[in-house]
Every structure is written in C-alpha cells, then in structure tokens.
Design brief:
The protein is of the alpha/beta class. Helices cover about 35% and strands about 25% of the residues. The strands form 3 sheets. A 6-stranded mixed β-sheet has the order 6-7-8-4-9-10, sandwiched between helices. Strands 2-3-1-5 form a 4-stranded antiparallel β-sheet. Bound molecules: adenosine-5'-triphosphate.
Length: about 325
C-alpha cells in the first residue's frame, strides 16, 4: 500500500464501537493445538454488473477493475444483436492475497473498516464463495453464523432450529435434546413458533448464534451477531465461545466493536481494502487499529473529534487519548506495503 491509498482513505467510513459491557474482560488463554485451518494466498473476486455496485465497492476503497466485453464474432453480432448485455461489467477484488494459519483453541477476531473484506474472508473459509486464486485447507466443519446463514425467514424459529441443526450435521435426536437450550439461549420465548421474518434483528441474530454454537462446532464463525445482544446475552455467548475453544474448537469473530474483540479474542487479523495488514496478539493489533481509526477521524475532522470514541446506544462521544495522526496512518501503509 502506498501513501496514495492513505490519501484515498479520506472518504471511508471509520466506524468503531467501544462498549462498557466489555470493559475489563479478556479471552481465556488456553494451550493451542495443531493447525486446523490454512489460508494460502487467498483471492476472492466478485463480478458486478452495472455502475451502482461498482461505485459502492469503489467507495470502500476496494480494488475495482472494469472488464472489457469479449469481442463477438460477426455471426454472433448479427444473430444476437438484440440480446447484447447493456451496462458496465467490473471485477471487485474483495480479498487480496490473504495467508494465515489458525490453531485449535484460538479465538481470532477480524477487524477492519466497512468494506475491507471481513465477511467475504469468512464466507470463503466456509466454502460459500470459491477462491479466485489460492486455497483454504480446513480440518473440521466450519459453522458460519451471520447474515448469510442458511436460515429461512418465512419459517418459524422452531423449524429453523431443526434445519440449522441438520445443516450442522446434528441428528434429529440431538436437535430434539438441544431444542429447549437453544430457545433459552436465544431468549426468544414464544416467538419460537412465529416466522423468523417477524423477529427483530437482535432476536434473529441471537437465534443464529444459539443454533450455530449448539453442537460445539470445530470452527465457529460469528459475524456481527454479538452486536445486537444485551449484557446477559454477551456473557452467555462469551461462555459458549470459551467452551468451543476448550473442546479444541476455533472461533472467528467479526465485529465493529473493538471492545468485544478485546474481550473475546486472543489474536486479531486486521483487514484493509482486501488485504491482511496486521496479524498478531489482540493487545498489539487492537491498539494499532484504534490508533489508525482515531487518526483518520482526526484527519477528517481537522483534529476536533479525533480522540473521541463512540459508545453504542448513545450519541455522546467520550474522550479517549489523542491519536498519533499521520504517523499511525503511515504505519498501516508501511505494514501493508
Ligand atoms: N456478492 C457481492 N458482489 C459484489 N461485491 C461484493 C459482494 N459481497 C461483497 N462485495 C464487495 O466486496 C467488498 C468487501 O465486502 P465485505 O462485505 O466482505 O466487507 P466487510 O469488511 O465485511 O464490510 P462491513 O464491515 O461493511 O460488513 C466490498 O467492496 C463489497 O462491496
């Protein structure tokens, strides 16, 4: 990455949350096992049609390339003249050469500003999106939890618990045995008999978490689900995450809340514009990332609100330490060069 990209960051959304519920909490350190996941030079490219999607990808600073339509033969042009695709075709390079190894027992947070490629990376690891280049080696079954989890809004919570359980490899008996526990964990009460489309986003997210973690999966993927829960749900989720890790599972957690990442993860991957710019111990990466976000907010507001942190649920920013401004931004540029 060069300073040009740092300049281009000026229009990006440097959203970062910091919550009081998480204060003073840390993920338990447990002895790590063998590697369970190897991501080797992974690239994911989306083909988008029309200018709107291309522009929104460009907004998030991702590498976008226009694709020239192939030249058609004369006979094709004569026969298919009326069927030619109209509109620009572009390629969005959402994940660019990401490599890392995860071990049994690790709890790995993924941070990055909007559009940096966090969800795409998770979906590629679970096999929902094929790699354009590179490879993903997994020992075990990843259970993806997130907006794209295969639950059906038109069906009841109860039916979704059944479908989700089967999709995770549970037997009907195991699903039956776990049913009440899942409903209790998600705290959805009588809503379990109503279609999921009637749920609030928080209820749906809690149910997805409860289903995905019910069978103690080998690899648990959590995409923003904890953002919608209250303190009690978070405490239950943290206990469940620790339990998955104690049973030699691995947890990946995507969140815009840096305090949640600090409370639940031992290691952090920082994505920026599709690249992995930093991978290390939670304290080291979280501190560098916070500095980067603050520095960019500061640059944007001319220093006025740079040292502010946003607390979810309040409109009032609170003062935190001042960032290092340009130095922190250059730091990222250097790491990802
Ligand atoms: N299905 C898709 N088709 C085309 N482009 C996509 C698709 N999914 C994601 N993208 C683009 O890929 C880039 C990375 O998106 P992704 O959702 O992985 O980022 P993210 O870091 O998870 O963002 P956020 O924090 O906003 O959820 C973005 O530019 C996005 O517009």
């Amino acid at each position: 990455m060069t300073d040009d990209v740092v300049e281009a960051d000026a229009h990006l959304d440097f959203d970062m949350e910091d919550e009081d519920d998480d204060r003073g909490q840390h993920a338990v350190e447990i002895p790590l096992g063998d590697p369970c996941l190897v991501v080797d030079d992974l690239h994911v490219v989306f083909r988008v049609f029309g200018g709107k999607q291309r522009d929104s990808a460009k907004q998030s600073g991702v590498h976008v390339q226009d694709v020239k339509p192939p030249r058609r033969k004369l006979v094709q042009r004569i026969l298919g003249a009326g069927r030619q695709h109209v509109g620009a075709v572009s390629e969005v390079h959402a994940v660019r050469g990401v490599s890392f190894v995860a071990r049994h027992g690790e709890s790995i947070g993924i941070v990055g500003i909007n559009g940096s490629g966090k969800s795409t990376l998770l979906r590629a690891i679970t096999g929902l999106i094929p790699p354009h280049e590179g490879s993903v080696w997994v020992d075990g079954e990843p259970a993806l939890l997130g907006v794209n989890a295969a639950l059906m809004p038109q069906m009841t919570g109860a039916k979704n618990i059944e479908i989700g359980g089967l999709a995770l490899g549970m037997t009907p008996k195991e699903i039956d045995d776990k049913f009440d526990e899942v409903v209790e964990f998600a705290d959805i009460g009588e809503f379990v008999d109503l279609p999921m489309k009637t749920y609030s986003s928080g209820m749906a997210a809690r149910l997805r978490f409860a289903i995905s973690s019910a069978a103690i999966p080998d690899i648990l993927m959590v995409d923003e689900a904890l953002a919608t829960g209250d303190a009690a749900f978070k405490a239950r989720s943290k206990a469940r995450i620790d339990e998955v890790r104690r049973q030699a599972g691995t947890v990946f957690l995507v969140s815009h809340s840096i305090s949640t990442i600090e409370a639940m993860c031992t290691r952090v991957l920082w994505m920026h514009q599709g690249r992995l710019v930093m991978d290390g111990h939670v304290d080291e990466v979280a501190s560098a990332y916070k500095q980067f976000v603050r520095a960019n907010r500061e640059a944007r507001t001319g220093g006025g609100a740079g040292g502010q942190r946003r607390v979810r649920g309040t409109d009032k920013p609170q003062r935190a330490g001042a960032g290092r401004g340009k130095a922190a931004r250059k730091d990222v540029a250097r790491r990802s060069a």
